[in-house]
Amino acid sequence: MNLLERITIDSDVLLGKPTIRGLRISVDQIIKSLAAGLTATDILEDYPELENDDIKAALLYASKILDSEKIFVISA
User: Fold this and answer.
1) Helix axes 27-35, 52-67, angle to 10 degrees
2) Residues 6 or more apart from 57 whose CB is under 8 A from it?
3) Which of 56, 60, 70, 76 has its CA 20 to 30 A from that of 33?
4) H or E stretch including 67?
5) pTM (2 decimals)?
6) Which domains does the chain have, with CATH numbers?
């Protein structure tokens, strides 16, 4: 399975935020947990319905979003 197939967007789940496999666990929630210092093991213990590949998918999804970000530089 392609990791990004684990990311789902459904307007009926968390107002359309990207989630993991249709669960009510958002990509944002996983990224913020990692940024706060939780390890993948911590997250998997807190959310037993998640799998390690779900965390990898969240990171990959976030990196793809940043890859497509446009940066504009205004010079004086």
Assistant:
1) 90
2) 3, 4, 6, 7, 20
3) 70
4) helix 52-67
5) 0.85
6) 3-67 (1.10.10.10)
